[in-house]
Amino acid sequence: MTVAMLGCTEYGMEVCNYCELNNPLKACRAGLECVDYMCIRPDGNFPGECCDKGAAECAEDYYCVYRTCAVSPIYPPPKEDLETLSDPFEVTAETRVILPETPTTTDATAGELLRAQIEDSLGLQLTVEPYTTETVLDNAIVIGTEVSNPGVQTLVTQLGLAVPGGGPSPEENYAFEIAGTNILVAGNGDKGVLHGSQALKQLIRGEALKSPTDPLASRVVTDSPDAAMRTFSLLLMFYHVPEDGDGDGNQDPYKYTDIPIDLDVARDYLHHLSELRFNTVLFSLADIVTWSSLPEPQTTAMSVSELMDLVTVANDYGLEVVPFLTGSSSSNGWIGTTENPVEYTEEYMLAQDAANLVIYKDVLQDIVDAFAPVQPLQYFHIGMDEDMAFGPRSGTMHRQWVNETYTLLSTNNVRTIIWHDTWTNTPDYINDYANYPNMHVAVWDYRTFIPDDVYMKINDIASKGMEVSQAFLENGWSPDFQRWFQNPTPLKKGFIGVFWNQSGTTLKPEAFDYLIHKHIRTDAHKFWNASIYY
Length: 534
Hints:
The chain is an alpha/beta fold and about 525 residues long.
């Protein structure tokens, strides 16, 4: 596929320079132009090109973004984006951002995002202030819910703006309207306010790139998500899979490599995940944090307080953090030490499994306790994938780890998430379903079509009331996305974007642009606008 440098006759060089600086391939395909760092055909994409309207597979096209080529730069594309006959709104130095009377941290974040974008795009420094009885709503950007901000309630009535109701997460639904005298951003809940502000922020940025001095055209945007949980996993540790140094055919012991986490990159990920309307982030934890029960953290491990600062940032951006600590015997090298590493042999497992389970549960409790004062946990992902396929653990040992871990988490009022693959092959599932605990099951089969026997088991799980979500490896689109929604028992709890790399982690600066532009953006559209795929 030919990649060509394009002139940017319609939108100006500034836009394409942004693309070339922030996109790993540096240029759009021939015939396409770079708009808000997306490659589109000005008159509308051809079928199959950049996956216009989400219909094509585009496996070879790194610019495949599953979006229509609409005027709006909002991404994921909202359900409705309609220009109106009202006068445009001109942002001036006197324009104010009006928050709810008692702003939540999410409200404050939404206001700051808009303030910062207006300063960056228009060079204007606006005042952000809470609503009071003396507040004048003219020449203002008013954000909040009808309950939290009387100004929102007033403008909803005046403008007749209706926030969508229903759906899997109605508190995340939002609407905004640009009118001649003000802009209204209304959400059903705090997250809806944040989503609406993020969408408006993108609109301001995109419109300013095209026409930096023009007022914002009048329009009404209404939007709502199609999936309750929209998750991306961030690996907080650097790791490697060792070679078989002694030639015995077995995986050699290993510890994670002592490379520090780039916390600035982590915060940048959280910022972008929020802008793209993800609502959950999976933090993969191991000995990269100095848990008190760890035998030996990495020398570059962050403190628990540093991790919780990162959790606070995620929460401010509207992201719920789900910790991930795998107990799989194929992946629990983090339990070991330099002097006594975990060995992946049957003899070692038989001798050390009970002791390692104690360590695992102690660290797990450390994590639950650390989260309690910052973000009390709803979910905890225990992994357990490939436990018997690549690890030496027996089925009896596997079930012991799962059941004891589940009991510990349940005692802490935390719901367990487990990868489906090992569990659905255990005798407890096959012979006696009732003996297996009621968990959230995440499906991670990465074949083009998930086999029928897997679907039968997952449908069985969902039909019994258990939560189910689906993970996408490196977030590529597959026909099974459509099949997922057409099952007799719709499996619509949510989706997890995963990116595993045996030689590193997502928290490398050089991986940031690659993942944001190639994977996370496309996932954002699929997860948010899932209904267009079925």
